[in-house]
Amino acid sequence: MTDSSTFDRNHPRVVARRAMNMVRALARAAGDGLHHLTVMQPTPVGVAEAECIITGPVFDESDESDPLTKVAYLLATTSFGVGAVLIARTLDGQGDVRFMSWMVRDVTAYPATASQSVIAYCMSEDRDLTDPVRGVTFVDAPSLA
Q: With pLDDT > 90 as the criterion, what percentage of the chain qualifies?
């Protein structure tokens, strides 16, 4: 007997697995360091935002209050026609930050260029990037496929 979720791209289990795999792929792509992930998604009443800190591709889908689970949840909701921005700020051992971002639609991450990531970073109300930020390097995001 075959599980019907095996063939249905929008089945909740399949969507959750795709979002989890995206987060794991991001952790592998970001490399060594402490990774601060942020997902921002427009909603009819404002912006939904989730963030977490990871040190590698770990994921505990049984804990709904886990920050990484919240990030994966927002990524999974992109399968229902909404988009999201996925942002990764990675702190290396020398205290420098590498910043990259992706546009996410249908649980597929589309890499942003370094200049597009600057725009994503400037979107927050609590940041003013009129001057260059010391120790922050914006880089072209790799594919998460």
A: 12
What residues does 14 pair with on adjacent strands?
Answer: none
pLDDT digits (tens, 9 = 90+) for 58-74: 555 556 666 777 787 78
Query: Among 75, 31, 32, 29, which Cα is nearest to 52's?
Result: 75
Q: Nearest 5°: phi and psi at 33?
A: 125, 180
Q: Is the sign of the CA dihedral 67, 84, 143, 30 positive or negative?
A: negative
Q: Cα(110)–Cα(57) distance, rounded to whole angstroms?
A: 19
Half-sphere exposure (CA, 13 Å, Cβ side) for 39?
Answer: 28
Q: Which H/E stretch holds residue 95? A: none
Amino acid at 138: F
In tens, the pLDDT along 27-36 reads 777 777 788 8
Query: How many residues are there in the chain?
Result: 145
